[in-house]
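step=encode ok
step=design start
structure_in=
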């Protein structure tokens, strides 16, 4: 760059600088420009404020439209909700969480659980299993405020969701202002069916009535038809409850029922066939009312459960009101597991909601059947095979009783000709004398008529236990075997839609194959037992027909029951028939007859205690009848009681 270029650039810089300095704005010009800019900014801010206010107004109008004209006036909101007026308006917002077992949806309207889905389970129509959804259920708490009674179901809460070390926490906050609120907190642990709920006030001393130490709770849940057989599901759905430290009880299962529970109630269960919602109070419910309504057959719901009760509540907020809520299966090992670490006397005994049959037989189910079923489940995945193995094991255990019963029947059958001779010799009018002669024959031959009945009676507890176990066994739900798609429901091979009087109400509109096989097998077994028992006696003929009629009655009874139960009885009868043929193959009746003849030839042995008592009772009855006849003759003829000639 030469010197002429440098001089030119310097001159240009001087000219530009001089021009700028000479044309700079005065202080008045600067002030005027700042005022113009501030004015423009204020206009923009006003426009933005008007836009925000417009949007707020539109949102308010939308909220007012959503809840109706009744609360459109803010003054009326204050009149209706008092300090909680701000919570009287809102738009429903849903919060969903999943813990591996449950998918729970919360709503800010009422601060409650709106729906619960059991993850991995399905209804009979292959849709997701919902314990309840939408308007199926309701939970409400009544708040006693200043000169007002408020219901949480009418108010909008603010949801606050967070994660904890064990799962998720959802806080539903009912705000008066930034300093005063009521929290309903839900803790949902991972991979658990049991959740925890707490209610606690914060700085509400001047809002809630301080002299009321309880809070009323109302719950309702409509039970959908979730299983294949509606009639069967209604039978096993019920409202259960347990008094603190006492046995569990239930409302009527067959009809609508309600009851006022006097005393402290530990928990109330809205029970379906295989799933339940159970509300467990940490300090018990008081003043509890429960109601269960059976809904019409055409409804998509089978029952409507209701419950209301009071819980201890601290309006000052120093202590929270807590309760637990179980959403899950009626599975024995799951429900029993909640008592594993409980101290004595503090057990929940939630498993009591599962019908175990009569108390005198329920111990067989809990101590033998369920442990055996669970143990076999560790080795086999097919529940059809597990039921087969259970049947074989039970048959092996009761084998001695079966053998003793067979031997008694065989002896009675061999003595039948002798008994018929006694009946021919002694007329029917002398029933007592005929019976004494028969008992004398039994005693000489060394046969006890009760020896065949007692072994059979000892097997009845097992039969009753299995009858209670299979229809309520959660593990069988949705499990297929052979043609049965669900061992907890009937296995229809023929179905029809038409309503048939006397058939449809009791038998249903289908025929279950396992039930049919059980019936056929039962008839065959009856024929085997009745063989060789033909008699001309009318009573015996009637008894024979009754024995053949019983399998048909069982078919009507079991056609709607779980196919797993019918399958068990079918296999059990097949094994019994096999055992009977084996007994007949290996028991030599000729030798047995010789042994009985030798016993008869021996000197009369001392009667057994039972036979002696029976004979004494017969003699006492004869003596009483004789005295009664003499007394009647004396009154009729007078004198010494002798009849006319």
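sequence_out=
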């Amino acid at each position: 760059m030469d010197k002429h270029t440098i001089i030119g650039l310097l001159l240009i810089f001087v000219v530009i600088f001089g021009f700028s300095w000479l044309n700079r704005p005065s202080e008045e010009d600067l002030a005027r420009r700042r005022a113009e800019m501030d004015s423009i900014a204020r206009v923009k801010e006003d426009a933005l404020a008007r836009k925000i206010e417009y949007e707020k107004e539109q949102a308010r109008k939308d909220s007012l439209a959503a809840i109706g004209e009744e609360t459109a006036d803010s003054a009326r909101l204050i009149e209706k909700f008092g300090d909680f007026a701000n919570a009287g308006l809102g738009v429903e917002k849903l919060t969903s969480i999943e813990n591996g077992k449950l998918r729970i949806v919360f709503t800010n309207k009422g601060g409650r659980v709106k729906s619960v889905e059991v993850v991995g389970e399905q209804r009979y129509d292959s849709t997701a299993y919902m314990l309840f959804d939408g308007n199926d259920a309701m939970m409400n708490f009544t708040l006693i405020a200043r000169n007002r009674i408020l219901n949480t179901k009418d108010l909008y809460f603010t949801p606050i969701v967070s994660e904890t070390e064990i799962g998720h926490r959802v806080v539903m906050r009912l705000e008066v202002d930034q300093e005063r609120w009521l929290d309903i907190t839900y803790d949902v642990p991972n991979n658990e069916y049991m959740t925890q709920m707490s209610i606690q006030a914060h700085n509400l001393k001047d809002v809630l009535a301080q002299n009321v130490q309880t809070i009323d709770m109302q719950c309702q849940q409509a039970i959908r038809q979730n299983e294949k057989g509606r009639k069967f599901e209604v039978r096993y759905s019920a409202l259960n409850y347990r008094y603190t430290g006492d046995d569990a009880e239930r409302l009527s299962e067959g009809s609508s029922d309600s009851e006022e529970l006097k005393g402290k109630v530990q928990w109330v269960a809205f029970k379906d066939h295989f799933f339940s919602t159970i509300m467990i109070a940490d300090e018990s419910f008081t003043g509890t009312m429960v109601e269960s309504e059976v809904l019409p057959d055409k409804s998509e719901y089978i029952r409507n459960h209701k419950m209301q009760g009071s819980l201890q509540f601290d309006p000052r907020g120093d202590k929270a009101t807590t309760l637990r809520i179980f959403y899950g299966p009626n599975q024995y090992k799951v429900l029993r597991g909640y008592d594993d670490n409980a101290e004595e006397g503090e057990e929940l005994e939630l498993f009591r909601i599962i019908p175990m049959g009569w108390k005198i037989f329920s111990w067989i189910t809990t101590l033998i059947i369920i442990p055996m079923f669970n143990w076999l489940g560790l080795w086999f995945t097919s529940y059809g095979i597990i039921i087969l193995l259970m049947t074989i094991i039970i048959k092996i255990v009761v084998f001695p009783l079966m053998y003793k019963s067979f031997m008694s029947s065989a002896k009675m059958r061999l003595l039948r000709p002798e008994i018929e001779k006694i009946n021919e010799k002694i007329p029917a009018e002398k029933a007592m004398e005929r019976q004494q002669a028969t008992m004398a024959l039994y005693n000489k031959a060394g046969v006890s008529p009760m020896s065949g009945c007692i072994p059979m009676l000892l097997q009845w507890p097992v039969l009753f236990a299995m009858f209670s176990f299979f229809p309520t066994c959660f593990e069988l739900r949705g499990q297929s075997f052979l043609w049965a798609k669900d061992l907890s429901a009937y296995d229809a091979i023929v179905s029809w839609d038409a309503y048939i009087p006397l058939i449809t109400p009791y038998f249903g509109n289908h025929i279950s194959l396992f039930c049919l096989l059980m019936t056929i097998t039962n008839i065959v077994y009856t024929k085997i037992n009745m063989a060789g028992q033909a008699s001309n006696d009318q009573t015996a003929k009637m008894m024979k027909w009754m024995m053949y009629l019983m399998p048909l009655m069982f078919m009507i009874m079991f056609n709607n029951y779980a196919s797993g139960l019918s399958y068990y009885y079918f296999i059990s009868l097949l094994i019994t028939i096999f055992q009977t043929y084996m007994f007949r193959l290996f028991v030599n009746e000729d030798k047995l007859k010789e042994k009985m003849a030798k016993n008869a030839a021996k000197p009369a042995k001392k009667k057994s205690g039972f036979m002696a008592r029976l004979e004494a009772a017969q003699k006492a009855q004869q003596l009483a009848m004789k005295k009664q006849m003499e007394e009647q003759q004396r009154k009729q003829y007078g004198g010494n009681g002798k009849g006319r000639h």
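step=design ok
step=annotate ok -> The chain is about 45% helix and 25% strand.
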